[in-house]
Design goal:
The protein is built from nine helices and 18 strands. By secondary structure, it is of the alpha/beta class. The chain folds into two domains: 3-206, 2-enoyl-CoA Hydratase, Chain A, domain 1 (Alpha-Beta Complex), CATH 3.90.226.10; 213-285, SH3 Domains (SH3 type barrels).
Length: 287
């Protein structure tokens, strides 16, 4: 990617990074900043409203790679969940800048990122879903079930599901990078670097990678010991200590979403998200 484009993206990012906390009172604004015909930097700010998922979908479909920066106090649950699903299906990364709020429905959309970025100063928070009854927010079990199903499809742990829906509708459970890690929510810690080169590597590594497979290429499970377990663990995070989501048999096809070291973020053809160790997968087979 040309340095001029990187500089432009960094400038926009830093402008958002120094904004003070504020309430999102306007409808969701979808600001798409393309770098070429296939890549874009996209800023979502304001309140999520019903129908925003369709606008978001039409705005991003032509891009094979994108970084999504979120800045919102929340809004419509179904819209945010659908946007999060689109983000994950496309393999986009998500981020919340320092001193920026992404709470409630916004935080759920942020979870959809194939790679999630946050800093120690990012304000990302969750609470139980609710409906308004006679002017009072009352927790809604059906909506919480939708959240639980969504988070589970993302490959997160039961601990994460519990934390995300634990706070009452009128409170917020904030997370930090360390707390996210303890809950099995894999994040990349975002620092404000002094060097543009470091910023390019850290913030946009999953966005500008030129050596990654095309998103439609399929990996497949291989190299297992037929005399051993003969299955590959699909993990909830890119480390051996994370929860096992599924057992993948030889030749299972996987949709490539991203990479962290020796771990590859994938989605199975059944729609289950997780991480696999790269030693036991290969590329590529036809869809």
């Amino acid at each position: 990617m040309p340095k001029a484009i990187i500089s432009k993206f960094l400038y926009i990012f830093f402008i958002f990074a120094i904004l003070p906390y504020r309430n999102a009172v306007y409808a969701l604004d979808i600001n798409v900043i393309p770098s070429d015909s296939e890549k874009a930097f996209i800023i979502l700010s304001g309140a999520f409203e019903f129908g925003d998922e369709e606008k978001f979908n039409s705005s991003v479909q032509k891009f094979s790679k994108a970084a999504i920066l979120l800045d919102s106090d929340g809004g419509n649950l179904s819209s945010a969940l659908r946007i999060g699903e689109i983000i994950r299906l496309k393999g986009f990364s998500t981020g919340v800048a320092p001193k920026t709020i992404c709470a409630s429905a916004c935080a759920l959309a942020w979870l959809g990122g194939g790679t999630r970025y946050m800093s120690d100063q990012s304000r990302i928070g969750f609470h139980a879903a609710s409906i308004n009854t006679n002017g009072t927010d009352v927790e809604n079990g059906q909506a919480n079930a939708l959240i639980g199903a969504y988070v589970t499809r993302l490959g997160l742990s039961e601990r994460a599901v519990a934390y995300i829906t634990e706070a009452s509708p009128n409170n917020i459970a904030w997370i930090t990078p360390d707390l996210a890690k303890s809950l099995g929510i894999y994040v990349e810690k975002l620092e404000i670097p002094d060097s543009t080169d470091v910023a390019e590597t850290k913030l946009f590594s999953s966005y500008v990678g030129n050596n990654e497979p095309h998103r439609r290429d399929l990996y497949y499970v291989t190299g297992l010991d037929p005399h051993g377990d003969n299955w590959l663990a699909l993990k909830s995070a890119p480390n051996l200590n994370s929860n096992r989501i599924d057992k993948l048999t030889p030749n299972t096809k996987l949709i490539y979403l991203g990479r962290s070291g020796h771990w590859i973020s994938v989605r199975t053809l059944k729609g289950v998200f997780g991480w696999v160790y790269d030693r036991y997968v290969a590329c590529c087979v036809a869809d």
